[in-house]
Amino acid sequence: MGHFSTMFNGLARSFSFKKGRNSGSLDDGGGRESAKAMLKDAKRKDSILCTSGVLNSEGSDTFASVFSKKGEKGVNQDCCIVWEEFGCQEDMIFCGIFDGHGPWGHFVAKTVRESLPPSLLCHWQQGLAQAFLDPELDSEKKHQRYDIWKHSYLRTCAAIDRELEQHRKIDTFYSGTTALSIVKQGELVVLANVGDSRAVLATTSDDGSVVAVQLTVDFKPNLPQETERIIQCNGRVFCLSDEPGVHRVWLPNEESPGLAMSRAFGDYCIKDFGLISVPEVTHRSITSRDQFIILATDGVWDVVTNQEAVEIVSSTPDRAKASKRLVECAVRAWKRKRRGIAMDDISAICLFFHSSSEQEHHLVSPL
């Protein structure tokens, strides 16, 4: 129980933010209040980054670089968030990237960005409390922490999609957003993906070179399991004649809305026809070989390969400029490879695991 006791002590600090207002309770009310309080406190301490820039707490080995560039289709519907010391835990960091679509897509993306981290934190608190009180818990099991996070993510995403449908100020019937996020807790990284953004890990091979490992699945409508679900729900999947190779989701009897992803928040016009907001939740244990993770919207991956992306980032001398350089390379690739097609919004987060000196060692010395 030692590991869970340490985390629970950290939570006790967070509850002190709301003394006298059910702060110690882990029910929906108290848990939600404490999570909102932690969000407010993190903003006050500048440990949250929601725009292009960098985030690195004093004494922390983790370093996050964020950059976003508007495309040629109107307002930028991409947005990001990095939250250090997530849940008042010194060894935890949360990163999320969101890609909106539709007339209200930028509002939907920002709404999910604001609501997902505190909601996840609330459900994680509840799961952690239940695990702490379970007399049969074996805290040495490798998957125990992951199981709590997975259950928390599933509950969070279901709750957010319900709340979006009832939102009074945002029309989500023909608008939505993807959501890709990770929580790094010590050596454990938990990933949750709704949509077609992608997470790619850069790790060091035996010969010292940098190798890309894709950590998530791009949920496109033409994936066999996604197509099967959509068809079973009477939705349709096909490409337009002027977009060969771009599979989209359509209503049964009209050529609308034509979504290029099979999972998203919002888009209630087609939620009964196969589109879902259920995340795929996976995990990985970070080792000394692993250097960084890239989270990026499809504006990057449409024109840059996984290997090209990790080489661009790893060859950038100043880590603070890593995400900006990756985005700029993607912009040039769009102009070169997709002439005549309006460039998409392009955004990336680069989360580094080790200090600069440690990274240099891994690059030149096989382990």
Automatic annotation (TrEMBL):
Its cofactor is Mg(2+); Mn(2+). GO terms for molecular function: metal ion binding; protein serine/threonine phosphatase activity. Transmembrane segments: none annotated. The keyword Magnesium applies. It catalyses: O-phospho-L-threonyl-[protein] + H2O = L-threonyl-[protein] + phosphate; O-phospho-L-seryl-[protein] + H2O = L-seryl-[protein] + phosphate. SUPFAM superfamilies: PP2C-like. Keywords: Hydrolase, Magnesium, Manganese, Metal-binding, Protein phosphatase. Pfam families: PP2C. Belongs to the PP2C family. This is protein-serine/threonine phosphatase.
